[in-house]
# Entry
Amino acid sequence: MEKLVYLLQEARDTAGAVLRKRMLAVADEIAANGGTKIVVNVNDDDVSQGARVTIGSLDPPIRAMVSFWMTNSDDRAAAEQLIQNAAEQIAGYLVVESVPTVNTAHVTAPAERTPGVNMVTCINRKPDVPQDEFFRIWYTDHKLVAQQTQSTFGYIRNTVVRPLTENAPPRDGVVEEFFPIEALSDQKIWYAAKSDEELQANLGRMIGSVQRFLDLGPLESHPMSRYEL
# Structure
């Protein structure tokens, strides 16, 4: 089995509810074309307070992510075309999924919205960091920092194997982190801090860790609502 991830760019003025309906309809069609374990993430009205934590320079911006599994990614053409038809631009990647933090706190029925917010973040290796050191920091050092300094209840690493679509920007990974919805407007909740001092300490650890191995120029991070089909 192989996991495929597609990032969808869409105009800022497309209503979140319209985009969500469109993405969920596409998910049903992907299931009819060989996709399994389909997950839709969409920047909709339920995460509208997330503008403060959004990072990105793409125009149009990333507004959704669709992921699914296939027995053979060579057979993706029909599903990929459905996704292409649903957005202004797409970027697809074959990935290896690992789940350092399994979501056991907010398990939902199929097609129900996962409580909270899923921060979908595209990452790139810092050019002067060797690849093996990049993976060591990301998989070991940074994982512990993220788990110890944030209020996440789910953490999925999608390590990019290769791009699937033409002109997809180079990426080393697509990370998903599940936060309480209140984290979008309260840094203390985001950084699991009970005081201003603890907030500054946790924020400092996170910034220091990120600067060790990530190229911040092409970084993209967007709040989304998550639906597992």
